[in-house]
């Protein structure tokens, strides 16, 4: 890698139009992804959005240019940046729950309490084999190790199906500041579709992870329903709770100025439950809804992070909380995470469960078509807890 001098030169205050100018000392070839090189001379410039979003290099391709400074398109306003200065005391973190005694009422109680207070908890001894977790992490690194051209085959523009999507940031077209993350999003429709459409480099490992987590997902939802006095999960409820699954592979490359940007901005998930596998790097922060402070979710080897999504907050009429969370960028190591979003079916209508309203409780949410709800989420930049207002009664 050759040496470059001052990067970037910020042309305009606003990001969409900004062109990043490089000044490069001799020689003028920057080596990037294995098979690609860009020739940059003193007069050359590249358009960041075009390079990252349209050309499919992603933020990983950008990071691999050897930037010394964060491009202005990624600079977030001060109030959205991470102040890692005063972390909450260690005891005040999300619960870590041992699922090996999953028929013990105390375990069920701990889960329901965590879903009410934190909306987040971690589980160990969950029954998903360790090699399945390791394999899907390796597969994630393999997918993002592909060339930009290979990955771009799965982009919105080129993918033969809407159910497979490679992208970067969250909604680049709507965002004032981009997020420092690339992703591959896989909506599970059927074994056959996954076998023919998911990228061969990771599909078996993702399938194993998805199938391997089915038992614990069911168990968690049963416990949570029990806590709402829902004794039987009939066909409709089963569809509302776990009628569809989406698995995202997230990649957060090393960032030149992690303090100025975010990996993922403040949001709540639109799922029923999310089961998240993170590696050992750390960077996920959860809002403590009582103090409003951000709490770090420490990586625990072999654990899975579980969080309540908006669909479950709506169905439980607000009893279980889908809590705001966000991810920092990292200046030293690349990070990956693999969430499984367990959702209602797109065609389901969701609202507070009848059991929640039996005793005269007022419905906090109206009934909404789930696909309308998700489209609303995907139509805007991350905006914290605002999404759920779409379903407010
Ligand atoms: C990426 O960064 C993220 C992602 C998240 C995700 C958190 C979740 O909770 S995901 C769980 C979402 N639930 C489901 O997927 C349920 C089942 N699926 C559906 O209901 C449908 O697939 C659909 C989501 C409603 C989309 O249906 P379709 O009619 O096929 O419409 P499209 O044209 O494909 O999409 C509409 C609109 O949304 C954008 N979009 C769709 N899928 C994704 C995706 N996986 N990632 C990002 N954006 C997506 C798409 O761009 C379309 O907008 P256009 O403007 O392009 O038309 C949390 C945090 C993150 O940082
Ligand atoms: O990477 C993480 O730890 C969390 C990512 C996340 O919140 C999401 O994909 O919805
Ligand atoms: Fe999330």
Automatic annotation (TrEMBL):
The prosthetic group or cofactor this protein requires is: L-ascorbate
**What is this enzyme's class at the first EC digit?**
oxidoreductase
GO biological process assignments: coumarin biosynthetic process; response to molecule of fungal origin
Asked whether the UniProt record includes Disulfide bond among its keywords, one would answer no
Q: Hey, which pathway is this one from?
A: Phenylpropanoid metabolism
Q: What is the lineage of its organism?
A: Eukaryota, Viridiplantae, Streptophyta, Embryophyta, Tracheophyta
* Name of protein: feruloyl-CoA 6-hydroxylase
Query: What EC designation does it have?
Result: 1.14.11.61
Reactions accelerated catalytically: (E)-feruloyl-CoA + 2-oxoglutarate + O2 = (E)-6-hydroxyferuloyl-CoA + succinate + CO2
Q: Which residues form a coiled coil?
A: none
User: Keyword set for this entry?
Assistant: Dioxygenase, Iron, Metal-binding, Oxidoreductase
Is Iron one of the keywords UniProt gives this record?
yes
User: Per its record, what are the GO molecular function terms?
Assistant: 2-oxoglutarate-dependent dioxygenase activity; metal ion binding
Looking up SUPFAM superfamilies in the UniProt record yields: Clavaminate synthase-like (SSF51197)
- UniProt record similarity statement: Belongs to the iron/ascorbate-dependent oxidoreductase family.
Domain Fe2OG dioxygenase span(s) in chain numbering: 238-344
The protein's organism comes out as Helianthus annuus
